[in-house]
Write a structure and sequence with these properties.
By secondary structure, the chain is α+β, with helices and mostly antiparallel strands. Helices cover 23% and strands 45% of the residues. It is built from 2 helices and 11 strands, in the order H-E-E-E-E-E-E-E-E-E-E-E-H. It comes from Phenylobacterium kunshanense.
């Protein structure tokens, strides 16, 4: 499963694009390694936000599965503060967690479908030198129960064996 999913994740990582307001050159997105179960983590964020208001847009191409999102921002003073006006994925607004010096917003249990537009939009105002970071955890949809070729061969042999036993039993009953 991992060997099949690894190229898909690599292609999706290449397909991710992001745009940010003018001076937001420090916007980033990083894909973590794919686990044995096909899950992976994406980290993203923006550092040194100097404009008074900003909009960061991340266009994603995640495979079919489930995603959970969290955004955090921390400040030590007024210039590092972010006042969020909107954080949404595909139009679904994030829930607000703790507000104040350490803030977070989250959106859990998002069902994702490959091929559908997947856009994360973050809008807010900066105190002058703010930053935020976020994490998306992704788990692929469970594959359908499709037997492997070896399993098919065993099933066919099993059905053939059961048929032979039934045929032989019927033959004995007719003879008696």
């Amino acid at each position: 499963m991992k060997s099949v999913l690894a190229p898909v994740v690599a292609a999706l990582a290449a397909a991710v694009s992001l745009t940010a307001a003018g001076a937001q050159a420090a916007t980033y997105i990083n894909y973590g390694p794919t686990g044995a179960d096909g899950g992976f983590t994406i980290t993203f964020g923006n550092t040194g936000i100097t404009g008074s208001s900003f909009t960061d847009v991340f266009d994603l191409a995640l495979p079919t599965g489930r995603g959970d999102f969290v955004i955090t921002s921390t400040m030590s003073g007024g210039s590092q503060n972010i006042t969020w006006s909107s954080v949404a994925f595909n139009g679904d607004e994030f829930s607000a967690g703790v507000m104040g010096w350490n803030e977070f917003r989250f959106l859990n249990g998002v069902e994702l479908t490959l091929g559908e537009g997947q856009q994360l939009v973050l809008k807010g105002a900066s105190g002058g030198n703010a930053s935020y970071s976020g994490v998306i955890t992704f788990m692929p949809a469970a594959p359908g129960a499709v037997p492997e070729p070896g399993a098919w061969a065993l099933m066919i042999l099993g059905f053939g064996g059961a048929g032979a036993v039934l045929r032989r039993a019927r033959g004995r009953a007719a003879f008696a």
